[in-house]
Write a structure and sequence with these properties.
By secondary structure, the chain is α/β, with parallel strands linked by helices. The protein has 2 domains: about 40 residues, no CATH class; about 190 residues, Rossmann fold (3-Layer(aba) Sandwich). Strands 1, 2, 3, 4, 7 and 8 form a 6-stranded parallel sheet that branches. Strands 5-6 form a two-stranded antiparallel ribbon. α4 crosses α5. The longest helix is centred in the first third of the chain and has 13 residues. The protein is globular, with a radius of gyration of 18 Å. The protein starts with a helix and ends in an 8-residue tail after the last strand.
């Protein structure tokens, strides 16, 4: 980062100090969240080792993964989708509140990462019509700072959404799977490294991520991990 940009950011923060996006108090630890609100964000510390589903007690695998393992190889979702993270996420995803997205990305960037790092991070793509409507891809906005922090390259446009789909938040689990079936593809003529991660903002049933994983494995990836900022405690409860 060059000196003029650093100076501009220092001046900007002096004129516009950190302010909590949830309660309006002064921000703490160079975040637009106060210490109390940041402490309330629900961590996903007890979860399934394969799909990151929050569990009431420690267990290696949830019942669903024991019965039928998902197509990905590992999952990382450091937060649970619940109050007050769900409020910040909704503002970021649907309210065009990029400040909320920056706070969430910074929180994720500061957390311990998986020991085995992928060679590429691939954000879940939006269809071009949805991208025009929203103005940005929330998965990409989360992936960029995380990739810089981990030293892992982020590639957008390699994994593409081949067709428009209905909003997953309006569908039940079975309809979600049907909705995204065959919706993703890897651009032809691009070789994938053996280990990649596909990243989204929230993981609910895992249908979107699973379809991305299938497309990536068909294209030659040997190991595909799924990363999400937050995991819904019960399928069907998040966007």
């Amino acid at each position: 980062m060059d000196a003029p940009l650093q100076a501009w950011r220092r001046l900007n923060r002096w004129l516009l100090p950190w302010r909590c996006l949830l309660c309006g108090d002064a921000g703490a630890d160079r975040l637009d969240l106060c210490a109390a609100c940041a402490a309330e964000l629900p961590r996903n510390t007890r979860c399934c080792a394969r799909c990151a589903l929050p569990l009431a007690s420690p267990a290696a695998l949830c019942g669903a993964c024991q019965r039928r393992p998902p197509p990905w190889d590992a999952a990382w979702a450091p937060f649970r989708y619940g109050w007050p993270l769900d409020r910040l996420e909704a503002r970021f995803k649907f309210g065009r509140d990029l400040a909320a997205g920056r706070a969430l990305a910074e929180l994720w960037r500061r957390l311990p990462s998986p020991a085995e790092q992928p060679a590429l991070i691939l954000p879940v793509p939006l269809h071009r019509a949805r991208l025009r409507q929203r103005g940005y891809n929330q998965a990409l906005e989360l992936a960029r700072p995380l990739g810089r922090s981990l030293g892992v390259r982020v590639r957008y446009g390699l994994l593409v959404r081949a067709r428009a789909t209905a909003a997953q938040s309006e569908l039940d689990a079975a309809a979600r799977r049907r909705n995204v079936r065959g919706a993703f593809a890897v651009r032809t003529g691009h070789a994938l490294p053996s280990h990649v991660a596909v990243l989204d903002d929230v993981m609910t049933t895992g249908a979107t991520l699973a379809e991305c994983v299938r497309a990536l494995k068909r294209a030659g990836a040997q190991r595909v991990d799924v990363w999400a900022l937050a995991r819904a405690p019960t399928p069907g409860r998040s966007g």
